[in-house]
Design goal:
The protein is α/β, with parallel strands linked by helices and 332 residues long. The protein has a domain of 224 residues: Rossmann fold (3-Layer(aba) Sandwich), CATH 3.40.50. 38% of the residues lie in helices and 13% in strands. The strands form two sheets. Strands 3-4-2-1-5-6-7-10 form an eight-stranded mixed beta sheet, sandwiched between helices. Strands 8-9 form a two-stranded parallel ribbon. Strand 3 and strand 4 form a beta hairpin. It is globular and about 60 Å long.
């Protein structure tokens, strides 16, 4: 395959975790981009919201966002921005306004401006929170063809956006590619992955030695690699791809990788999984326990076979890079 290098990409969610890694990678490869950033200022005083060749400011992303001037010189849009889980309670309308209406409006405006490729980064939550099981109780990995049953407003909004984009692709001149990643980790990671890093570094005993779950993960640089490939590969048009590092890992194996990378001894207690599950249930911590010890496995063969994509980093290498960042950030 002869890759077509795009002229310039417009990137939403540029200041986010994945956005920062993507922009850094593009800078290393001398690929031009324009970052969409959020501003609380009155944009009526800015010409079309465009303040420089490399930045475009918006007050938010929904069905009414003005994108005038954003696509000047742009032939690819990489849409990372989304309303994800917040501390405050949000309604379905909030998620739909940004993740569905905002995405579709951006796609329409991009096509109208002559953009040739639109890459939408969705989420494995568009499938479900937990894998289905077959008749023998075995995990059925999520695939692009498996029926989706998203559980929360975020997952539902991502699924609806995907469906609307796929419908639009039937008549659109602009190529649309959709990527569904599972949990993304790497330098500057937050939430549960960061919390686990802190516990391992402190040497806190973790009751995970008896947990035999399986989780698919993706290192942020692997995700960036897949995004850039989908932005250029002709066979990515009209496709949805699930991506992952490769073979899933158990949470206990992940802890061991972290400990090894940080020069620590993993402190894993072998408490029966059913006992821990019961304790989580009676203490109202079932959701948190599921995130820590539940299974979520994906099948990413489609992107590997269709686009001949291979992740540049193994899970062990990705965890090592993440731990290296984590230790440096704590020492600085």
């Amino acid at each position: 395959m002869s890759e077509k290098v795009f002229k310039k990409a417009l990137i939403t969610g540029a200041t986010g975790f994945v956005g920062q890694a993507l922009i850094a990678r593009m800078a290393r490869e001398d690929l031009a981009c324009r970052e969409v950033r959020r501003s609380t200022k009155n944009l009526s005083h800015m010409e079309n919201g465009l303040t420089s060749a490399s930045h475009f400011f918006v007050t938010g992303i929904d069905g009414t966002t003005s994108w005038e001037g954003a696509f000047d010189g742009v032939d690819v849009v990489i849409h990372l921005a989304a309303l994800a889980h917040q501390r405050k309670v949000l309604s379905w309308d909030d998620y739909r306004r940004c993740n569905v209406e905002g995405t579709l409006h951006l796609a329409r405006e991009a096509e109208r401006a002559g953009v040739s490729r639109f890459v939408h980064v969705s989420s494995i939550k568009a499938n479900d929170e937990e894998n289905p099981r077959d008749g023998r109780g075995r995990i059925v990995p999520f695939s692009e063809s498996l029926s989706a049953a998203p559980q929360d407003p975020y997952g539902r909004s991502k699924w609806e956006a995907e469906m609307q984009l796929q419908k639009r692709q039937e008549t659109a001149k602009m190529g649309i590619a959709i990527i569904r990643p599972p949990l993304v980790y790497g330098p500057r990671v937050k939430a549960n992955f960061l919390a686990l890093l802190k516990l391992v570094r402190r040497g806190v005993p973790l009751p995970l030695g008896g947990v035999s779950n399986q989780r698919s993960l993706i290192y942020v640089e692997n995700l960036v690699s897949a995004i850039l490939l989908c932005a250029q590969h002709p066979l990515a048009t009209g496709q949805t791809f699930i991506v992952a590092d490769g073979e899933p890992v158990s949470t206990s194996s992940l802890v061991k990788m972290m400990a090894s990378s940080m020069g620590k001894t993993p402190r894993l207690l072998n408490i029966p999984e059913n006992v821990l599950s019961h304790l989580a249930r009676i203490t109202g911590q079932s959701a948190r326990w599921c995130k820590l010890a539940g299974s979520l496995v994906v099948d990413d063969r489609k992107i590997r076979e269709t686009l001949e994509w291979q992740p540049p980093y193994s899970t062990a290498a990705g965890v090592a890079k993440t731990c290296e960042w984590f230790l440096k950030s704590r020492d600085s």
